[in-house]
Every structure is written in C-alpha cells, then in structure tokens.
Fold this sequence. Notes:
By secondary structure, the protein is mainly α. The chain is built from seven helices and no strands.
Amino acid sequence: xxxxxxxxxxxxxxxxxxxxxxxxxxxxxxxxxxxxxxxxxxxxxxxxxxxxxxxxxxxxxxxxxxxxxxxxxxxxxxxxxxxxxxxxxxxxxxxxxxxxxxxxxxxxxxxxxxxxxxxxxxxxxxxxxxxxxxxxxxxxxxxxxxxxxxxxxxxxxxxxxxxxxxxxxxxxx
Length: 173
C-alpha cells in the first residue's frame, strides 16, 4: 500500500525507485526499533549514504543542502541529548535516533529537520504519554525511532506543503 502511495506521489522513476526503497527501509527500522530498541547501523548508515548519493544527482535536493542536512540532523539531536544527559545524568535517546535524523537530512536537506523533529516529538509525546498512562509505569523507556520514521515518511510525501504552510504561518502571509 505504501509503495502505491509513494508511486502515486512522485512522477518520475528516478524519484519513485529511491523513495520506495527508503519507504521499505523505514518500515524495517520502525519495527526493529519497536521490538529491539535498536536502529541498526547497517540500515541507517547505508541509507544515509544512499541519500547523499541520490542527491549527488539532485534527485530530491541539491547536494550541499543534503550534506548540511545530514550534519545538522545528527548534531541537533546529539546536542539535545548531551544537554539532557548533563541535567538528568542519563541518556534520553540512542545514537540510532541521531543517525536516522541525519538520514533524513541527507535525503531531504536541512529544510526537513524542523518539521521532522516537531512531528516526531508530538507523536512521541501523544503516543508515549498515552502508553505511560495505560501501563502506569513512570520510567519505562520506549523507542523514538518509529516516530522519527513516520515523521520522515510524512515529510517525504508532503514536505513542500508542510514547509510552505509553516512559512505562511510564521510570516502571516
């Protein structure tokens, strides 16, 4: 079903094939992280490099935006986690989450990062908060990767519209 949605959204084979491959990788990552609380480097790093390679040819983004996106995608979440670690004396997320966010930066440039971070955080807050209430456990960790994967998939399909809507909201246009 997701393959059909991706194929319908993109109109050229040069975009459809990599987008479908990314979609299937995201499905695998989301389920692995949900089950094992682990985002395997063999998938995240392979698809991070694939995003840079795809954008070497300008398929989704200009290469310089993709490189900056990969660096910021990793660096922003790493910094937030480091600050959290200083305050709480424990890690708030794993390195796989940083790599997954860097992956999206490599595919869709630094422009995608605010939307992906906000969408994944809201999803995590709603779903994670609900699970804490249902389970009545205060310190049970839950994986953040599935929320990042969902947010990135949504951005892949509707990123232009999301960023335009955000700019209109901010600029009041």
